[in-house]
Automatic annotation (TrEMBL):
Extent of the signal sequence: none
Name of the protein this chain belongs to: Ornithine carbamoyltransferase
Any one Gene Ontology molecular-function term assigned to this protein's record: ornithine carbamoyltransferase activity
Record-linked PANTHER family: ORNITHINE CARBAMOYLTRANSFERASE, MITOCHONDRIAL, ORNITHINE TRANSCARBAMYLASE, MITOCHONDRIAL
Gene: argF
Aspartate/ornithine carbamoyltransferase Asp/Orn-binding domain sequence ranges: 149-301
Top-level taxonomy: Bacteria, Bacillati, Cyanobacteriota, Cyanophyceae, Leptolyngbyales
């Protein structure tokens, strides 16, 4: 039986280091054409309460490549949007579907969904985490550097969902991780403690307010929007607060000379990243985008028991 058959992915911390590396390895094999797992007649449901381009399309394309089908369960077209409880929806969907990916606000909602479901539930982004994104990001790092140990990932910006999964993913991979945020926007201390417990002092987990110190000698610079979905009213207020954390040429100059730049997208050019860096020679953003599909194809194949 495949190691991850029937499993949920609600947080990257649901995986052991070995399991996460297995997923990344499976994604690399799918991307290279070495394997072509198939899940014919399996159905993926997408329950998305927030906007999405990459996650929605890459999950859909991944499921089609596996020979399966997808049902888009837009909250506004279902009773989900009218408040039917997650516990009830979960027990309905698991009678029809084989796997569900959920994008919502509270992590407790995906947890409640999973608790009442007999099929795998995948976190397609909550306010707390974005595990599928980080599987693709780590695949991109592996492609560039051939591994993780001894390399340093620096995240600049808001210490929320993407940062949380990145901290956990780097700790699982044995990669040093530094997170630089403005005061008041630090990552959740529980996540940081989880990452420290995973790394057991074998790799760095550094949280700082000093962007330059965090970037010094780093191999990967990573950022995300300064105001996430649901925080739009706060966006203007955040611009001057986050400005020292912008990925620009000045910061790139103090990173390792081989450093690459990642961004989960969508990007706000001129805010968290400059146009020149985004489109420059250090950017691997478009490979990162592509890797969302390979990583999710691997994840779906694994939880459906096809590899
Ligand atoms: N990176 C990411 O999750 O993008 P979408 O919001 O477009 O899915
Ligand atoms: N932090 C961003 C990520 C989008 C993929 C958000 O939650 O809106």
């Amino acid at each position: 039986m495949a190691a991850l058959k029937g499993r949920n992915l609600l947080s990257l911390a649901d995986l052991t280091a070995e399991e996460m590396m297995r997923l990344i390895a499976t994604a690399a094999k799918i991307k290279s054409g070495e394997i072509n797992p198939q899940c014919p007649q399996k159905i993926l449901g997408l329950v998305f309460k927030k906007a999405s381009t990459r996650t929605r399309v890459s999950f859909t394309a991944a499921m089609y490549k596996l020979g399966g089908q997808v049902i888009d369960l837009n909250a506004n077209l279902t009773q989900i949007g009218r408040g039917e409880p997650a516990a009830d929806t979960a027990r309905v969907l698991d009678r029809y579907l084989d796997v569900v990916a959920i994008r919502t606000y509270d992590q407790s909602e995906v947890e409640e969904f999973a608790q009442h479901s007999r099929i795998p539930i995948l976190n397609a982004l909550t306010d707390l985490e974005h595990p599928c994104q980080i599987l693709a990001d780590l695949l991109t790092v592996q492609e560039e550097f051939g591994g993780f140990k001894g390399y340093t990932m620096t995240y600049l910006g808001d210490g929320n969902n993407v940062a949380h999964s990145l901290i956990l993913g780097c700790a699982l991979a044995g990669m040093n991780v530094r997170v630089a945020t403005p005061e008041g926007y630090e990552p959740d201390s529980t996540i940081v403690e989880q990452a420290q417990a995973i790394s057991q002092g074998n790799s760095e987990v550094v949280i700082t307010h000093d962007a330059r110190a965090a970037v010094d000698g780093a191999h990967v610079l990573y950022t995300d929007v300064w105001a996430s979905m649901g925080q739009e009213d706060d966006a203007a207020k955040r611009i001057p607060i986050f400005e020292p954390y912008q990925i620009n040429q000045k910061l790139l100059d103090i990173a390792d000379k081989t450093a690459i730049v990642l961004h989960c997208l969508p990007a706000h050019r001129g805010e968290e990243i400059t146009e020149a860096v985004m489109e420059g020679s250090h950017s691997r953003i478009w490979d990162e985008v592509e890797n969302r599909m390979h990583a999710q194809q691997a994840l779906l194949a694994e939880v459906l028991g096809a590899v």
